Amino acid sequence: xxxxxxxxxxxxxxxxxxxxxxxxxxxxxxxxxxxxxxxxxxxxxxxxxxxxxxxxxxxxxxxxxxxxxxxxxxxxxxxxxxxxxxxxxxxxxxxxxxxxxxxxxxxxxxxxxxxxxxxxxxxxxxxxxxxxxxxxxxxxxxxxxxxxxxxxxxxxxxxxxxxxxxxxxxxxxxxxxxxxxxxxxxxxxxxxxxxxxxxxxxxxxxxxxxxxxxxxxxxxxxxxxxxxxxxxxxxxxxxxxxxxxxxxxxxxxxxxxxxxxxxxxx
Length: 266
Fold this sequence. Notes:
This protein is an alpha/beta fold. 36% of the residues lie in helices and 21% in strands. It folds into 2 domains: 2-51 and 198-265, 3-Layer(aba) Sandwich (Rossmann fold); 80-194, Rossmann fold, CATH 3.40.50.1000. The strands form 4 sheets. It has a 6-stranded parallel β-sheet with strand order 5-4-1-13-14-15, with helices on both faces. Strands 7-6-8-9-12 form a 5-stranded parallel β-sheet, sandwiched between helices. The chain has 9 helices and 15 strands. It has helices at residues 2-7, 32-41, 57-66, 79-90, 103-111, 142-155, 177-188, 200-210, 224-234, and strands at 13-16, 23-24, 27-28, 45-50, 76-78, 96-100, 116-118, 129-134, 159-160, 166-169, 172-175, 193-194, 217-221, 237-241, 258-260. The protein is globular, with a radius of gyration of 19 Å.
């Protein structure tokens, strides 16, 4: 299977999902380190392509490194970075960004050179908001959400880094960023602009950033509803792995170009 897939295509870029594909929780998927190294040797640029907006690129690279997977911060592509890219194109530079989120969102806005403040520390006298952006924030409070909703009502739009409603956690599922996004939408009547999987903007951002064409890209992930759906919507090749969520998906539910047990098989 390994040679059949790679011999038939000359991809330049591999968009790699992380949790469930390269690692599961605190454990690397067996063979993930060697797979990433094979990509490099083959001249395929690995891009660590994640909906997780809580971590900075350096933090993502550090986590991968701690699991034995070689990664550089400049190879990391997060939904927070895609959100900052969208905001830079659509927001008046004289206005600021009010956000809910953690290190990943703050760092992306800082890197984009945009004035910003966490909703908890922002005051209307500080600056006029041009946009509101929401990433997962495990310390978010009712007061934070109330202020954020008021900002969204005034703007009539907000950016959601990713729509994942539930995430795996210790002992079971826990609320994801999409759950909080749905709360904001229910309260305000305003739907979000989504910049992460499965929205095409995320792939478009990666293609522009790494200078690749669609036919030069393969997207590899475990989740058919985000990873594979995104690849299909964008017209890039897709490979689903049967690790992570992929272990629970029947073949009839999958529309990936190829299905393999693990990245170790690639």
